[in-house]
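Dear colleague,

Following up on Tuesday's group meeting, I ran the structure prediction for the two-component complex that the binding team flagged. I've pasted the input sequences exactly as they went in, so you can double-check that nothing got truncated or mislabelled along the way. The structure tokens for the whole assembly follow below. Feel free to forward this to whoever is handling the docking comparison.

Inputs:
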Amino acid sequence: MADQVLDAKGLNCPLPILRAKKALKEMATGAVLQIDATDPGAVKDFEAFCRTTGNEMMEHSEANGVYTFLIKHTA
Amino acid sequence: MRDDSNAKSMTIIVTKGTLDWAYPPFILATTAAAMGIETTMFFTFYGLTLLKKDLNLKINPLGNSAMEMPMAGGHMAMPNIVAALPGMTSLTTSMMKNMMKKKGVASIEELRELAVEADVNMIACQMTMDLFEYKKEDMIDGPSLGGAASWVDVAAQSDINLYI
């Protein structure tokens, strides 16, 4: 599972992306970051973030208004 | 910032300094930087106030009929004659700031700090500094001083150029 968890709940655009980038920068290549967010816009934004940066979106899900993303640090 | 890699690059000309208009350039710049894009911001005219050490950004709905505030389950716009009253600017500013805080929207101070941290290249317009008599010591550390040619030079090599 995740090597590190980032709680981005309650944060609005662009903070979840900025915090995620900061966390990924400190992580080893191949490590997995879990992000929990409540901003519905984060779904499209994390897909776009991964597409542009080359990091791998392993999975994302939603439960009770919390969006969870697993991103592997590959770039 | 020279593009000597394959990285994409973006420039933003920042011309407005009210609380609402401060958001688009800083949101886009920090996000682009987070996505590995070399980003340059050129601050000119009222945009230059966004580089002052002490930010005191304000907003007033005067003349902006599109500005509605959520209120009592609906939305309300403020009539111009009310917005023009003394004290209205500080009232609407604190309403906006409270609403942003409640909704988890970053402050401009926070976004600006993140932009500096992310090595966003900032250029303060020398001509505007002279025109409005701003001193370099009133401004945050980091931005360089330059003119239109400094922006054109970077923009000519950039993939995305925005004017806000």
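Residues 34 and 70 of chain A are 5 Å apart (CA to CA).

Cheers,
M.
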